[in-house]
Design a protein that fits this description.
The protein is of the alpha+beta class. It has two domains: about 1-225, 2-Layer Sandwich (Nucleotidyltransferase, domain 5); about 230-460, 2-Layer Sandwich (Nucleotidyltransferase, domain 5), CATH 3.30.420.40. The chain contains 16 helices and 22 strands. It has helices at about 45-60, 100-110, 110-115, 125-135, 140-145, 150-160, 165-170, 185-190, 210-215, 230-240, 290-300, 310-320, 355-370, 390-395, 410-420, 445-460; strands at about 1-10, 15-20, 25-30, 35, 45, 65-75, 80, 90, 145-150, 175, 180-185, 205-210, 225, 230, 245-250, 255-260, 275-280, 285-290, 320-325, 340-345, 375-380, 400-405. It is globular, with a radius of gyration of 22 Å.
């Protein structure tokens, strides 16, 4: 059986996985995504990462027949390249650019419709990285061949073909308007169009693995290298490949990310937490995001799960609330950063703390859903759904939707692997999901209304 190798690049760690064409994970290896403090700035060690990737492909190739390789990654990684490879080190997106770059970028960046995201901190946007490189190293920038989002950089390294791709460019790069399926006007104004190569679909084969790399890794010279995909779009694609539509997906981890295929969001208007990505077909995918995993951890503290219905009933009956925001990200509730608090009779009760944290995370996820058009199907996945009560709470709060919980922990890699069979798939990809148990729950709709009433004045108090 031909296997798909998935290179999943996260900010902190990277994974290399072997998957079946149906997306089932056969094997996984991981390593830290190393960062070098400088010079010229804090950056990722691409050379070390490439050596690890090639060694890993060689290792996987001894046990699996690898027919295709695909990369997926977060949306804030980009690399300026010349003919031979990286022309400049890859900027760590948490690295703060020089003050003049930050100031001038804020003045030149386009409308929300063109950006598709808020203007975030550090070097989170590929366009801001390009401005910094252009100003700091003008000769290198002028002589560069392309600026590639991270999945396409790794495809370029593996097969030598430079390509652009809409899910990667549509993820807070500020180079691409997903709403209009066109480059942001900033690209033309800055003369950057020459650095953005022709667009290819995420599932397209760019070419075979370079002969020298095929030899080094012991892989077939016919091994296909796919264009690659943004991680959240890969996770969304696995449900599209399973035949779902009229769909909202809520993925939970450090970030809670909600994405929908429904229209009806005003993409000309910026709103707290709002974003607009793209799917593999180039269609706009409105979304919401908040750092819900970190908020959950801040409330739960050292408490251990699982959450219980008994604790939930006590919390709801006493109107004990966790109110935003405990961390530095206050995107859903501007002005609340590091002002989060727990109030109510059980505020100091350690026995309910884990359940309270989970309930608070569900409130944040539900707030994301309230800012999107209602969908017929709501799918929940990621780390928080490991606790059954999380799905149950959201199902109770969304009684008109068909709510499904997917406990598979490899959503991004599964979606990326499914790309390899996109053009030949004759039937929907398999999907294992379950309906949450909403029995014996307290009145969560009333609690939700009370939480909203308390959260909004609190967020506006500053």
């Amino acid at each position: 059986m031909s296997v798909v190798a998935v290179f999943d690049v996260g900010k902190t760690n990277v994974k290399l996985l072997a998957a079946t064409p149906d997306g089932a994970i056969l094997e996984e290896m991981s390593a830290p995504n190393l960062v070098v403090d400088g010079p010229p700035y804090r950056h990722h060690d691409l050379a070390a990462l490439e050596a690890w990737l090639l060694d890993g492909l060689a290792d996987l190739g001894t046990r699996h027949s690898i027919g295709a390789i695909v990369a997926c990654s977060h949306g804030s990684g980009g690399v300026l390249v010349n003919e031979s490879g990286a022309a400049m080190p890859m900027i760590d997106y948490e690295q703060e650019p020089p003050a003049d770059v930050v100031r001038d970028y804020a003045a030149m960046v386009g409308s929300f419709r063109e950006r598709g995201s808020a203007v975030m901190l550090g070097s989170a946007h590929l366009a801001r990285q390009m401005l910094w490189l252009e100003r700091g190293w003008p000769d290198v920038f002028a002589g560069a061949r392309a600026f590639l989002a991270l999945p396409q950089y790794w495809a370029f390294r593996l097969c030598g073909v430079a390509a652009g791709e809409v899910t990667s460019l549509g993820a807070q790069s500020h180079l691409w308007s997903s709403a209009d399926a066109a480059p942001a006007r900033l690209v033309e104004r800055r003369g950057w169009a020459r650095l953005l190569p022709p667009l290819r679909r995420a599932y397209e084969t760019l070419g075979p693995l370079k002969p020298a790399l095929a030899t080094r890794c012991g892989l077939s010279p016919d091994t296909r290298v796919l264009c690659g995909i943004h991680d959240s779009s890969a996770n969304f694609y696995r449900y599209q490949a399973a035949g779902l539509s009229d769909l909202t997906v809520v993925s939970t981890g450090t970030w809670i990310v909600a994405l929908t295929d429904r229209s009806g969001v005003d993409l000309d208007r910026e709103a707290p937490g709002r974003a607009c990505n793209a799917d593999v077909f180039g269609r706009p995918v409105p979304g919401m995001l908040t750092m819900g995993g970190r908020e959950f951890a801040a409330v739960a503290g050292e408490a251990r799960g699982p959450a219980t219905r008994e604790a939930l009933r006590r919390i709801v009956a006493s109107r004990t609330l966790a109110l935003p925001s405990f961390g530095g990200d206050d995107g859903l509730f501007p002005g609340t950063a590091r002002r989060g608090l727990v109030e109510g009779p059980l505020a100091g009760d350690a026995t309910v703390r884990f359940t309270l944290g989970l309930l608070y995370a569900a409130m944040l996820a539900n707030q994301c859903l309230r800012d999107l058009p209602p969908a017929r199907t709501l799918v929940l996945d990621g780390g928080l759904v490991r606790d059954p009560l999380f799905g149950a709470i959201l199902a109770a709060l969304n009684p008109a939707a068909r709510v499904l919980v997917n406990r598979d922990a490899h959503g991004t890699a599964t979606g990326a692997a499914l790309l390899a069979g996109h053009e030949t798939r004759a039937a929907p990809a398999p999907l294992s999901a379950e309906t949450p148990d909403v029995s014996d729950l307290p009145d969560l709709l009333s609690y939700w209304s009370h939480w909203c009433d308390r959260s909004r004045p609190w967020s506006q108090a500053s």
